[in-house]
Every structure is written in C-alpha cells, then in structure tokens.
Amino acid sequence: KAFLQGASMKFVIDMMGGDHGVETTIGAVKEFLKLHDDVYFYCVGNVECLSPLEGLDRVTIVPSTEVLKMDVDPMEAMHKKDSSLNIAMETYLKENCDCLVSAGSTGALVSEGVFKIKRMAGIKRPCLVSPFPTVIKGKNFVCADLGANTENTSENLLQFAKITSIFYRIAYNCENPKVYLLNNGTEEEKGNNLMKETYQLLKNDPSINFKGNMEAREPLNGECDVLITDGFTGNIFLKSTEGACKVMSNLIKRSFKTNFMTKIGYLFAKKGFKDMSETMDYKSTGGAMLLGVNGLLIKAHGSSDVRTFVSSLKIGYRLSKNDIINKIKENL
Question: How confident is the model at residue 48 (pLDDT cuts 50, 70, 90)?
Fold first, then answer.
C-alpha cells in the first residue's frame, strides 16, 4: 500500500481474541491511529465484523473465519489454520512485522510463538513477562514467568532471571536491576525444593543482581525491579494482585457513597483518591510479552477494554522503537 503510507512500523492484531472481541480491538486500533502516524496495522478477523475499519488509512483487513476459544488446547490450536491467531502469526512472518498483539488464549499464543516464531538461540523455554504498578508513581517492576509454563526447573528460572534482567535494563533504562525470588518467606532456607535450588543458582550467578527472597505482599512497595517465579505461581500472583486492586477500589468507592457526609468527604479526598487510582492502575501497564522468542509478541489481558488494549499497543510501540528483540539477543 504505497510503502505502507509512510509508516515505519508494522503491527499485526488478532482482532477476534479476548472476552469482548472486536468491540475492544476496533476501538483500540482507531484510537492508536490518532496517536501515532508511523504504525501500519494488519487487522486479522472476520471481514464483516471488521467493516468499521474499511477505508481507513494505514489499515489492511486480513480475513479469517475461525475464533479460538479461550480454553482451547494449545496443540489443537495449532491445527486450526483459519483461526485469527494462526493467520496473524502467518502475517507477522510473511510481512516481516514488528509486533503482534492478541488478547486471546495464552496457551495458544505461547505454542504458536514457540513453534512458528521460534525460540532465541540458547533459550530453553520462553516466559511471559509483564509490568506491574507500584506505590511509587511511574515505577514499575516486572514479573516472570506469568504462565507460559506450568512447571519449571531451577535452571529455567535462572534463565528467566537473566533475560528478564536484560529486558528491564533496556526497557526501563536501569543499569543494574534488583532481582528477587517470589517465595513464602525472606529467609534463604525458605520454600520448596524448586525455590531453594533456584535461590542458590541466583545467588551464585555474578551476572544477576540478586537480592534474595520476597513475599507476595512486598513487590507493590517498589523495592523490586525483577520478580522471578515459576509459571504456575506467577499466574496466580498476577490474577490475585489484579483482583485485590479491583476489590479495594470498589470498596473505597462504595464507602464514599454510604451517606451524604461521606459524599461530602469525597470532595475533599477526590484529588488524593484520583492520584492513588492512577498510581495503582494495572490497566495502564497493558499486557505481557512472550520473552525468549524471535519476535515481539504481546499478550493483552483477556478482559481488556479499549483503554487496556491501547496500553498493550503502547508497550509494543515502545519496545519496537527500542529494537528490543535484537538488543536482548546481543546481550544474551
């Protein structure tokens, strides 16, 4: 399309993935087109559903006829050739794109990424890495693995720490990120065999700025830069943290609506409450990156609304601008 109408980056979007489907993705693409004039979109999905995008500059609609269910078996997903995710992967490779974003099945994205995009040289297993907000406004930490693998070895966790430290250093301009191991206590001897073995490997690796164990209640305080855990525990940590933030936000809102006096009190506390909400808003951090494959794959929240999906696109944009994949390879 006339040299992609001047755009310097190409994004592929699985428009059909996620709980809210095209209602979210169409709105996010339209909003992002207004924010950046240097990105060209390949939007994959049902042509009829994507008709609101027809005729827009810097958009190509790529047809698909099948939508993967969120609980689809990852290996079964590989054989559904006309699914929006499968065709998005093919488009990513064929068009030599910079980023792929999907809010669909995590397992399907991981399996497609490993078998089609392929792992980086020397990487045994990729991991899902995502930023988390902290009480320090503007300060994020990242956690890996968040669910790419349900079972890991201590060697896997050591490698997660290495590549995630490189990622944090590049993405957040932090020379020597502090690495912690998520555990059920701070003492060195705490945890199961996996955690104990991983502790010793991290402790004795000079390339990692390892600071010890950290309990799940501490990361949001802002001391941690990189939090390492196995995929099963990491996924539970992710969803528990998001759930707790939602509950607390709803409780605070409800308390201000109790009676006339509490509503008056809200007027005085409004600025502080808004600042707190912005500081701890997980929706602004977007999705997770599948780290360790030869491409930039972003897993947006399955429950993404337009704002959350735009945040995922922003992460992809920033990482693409920084040439994050090639820089990680160089540092490895």
Answer: very high
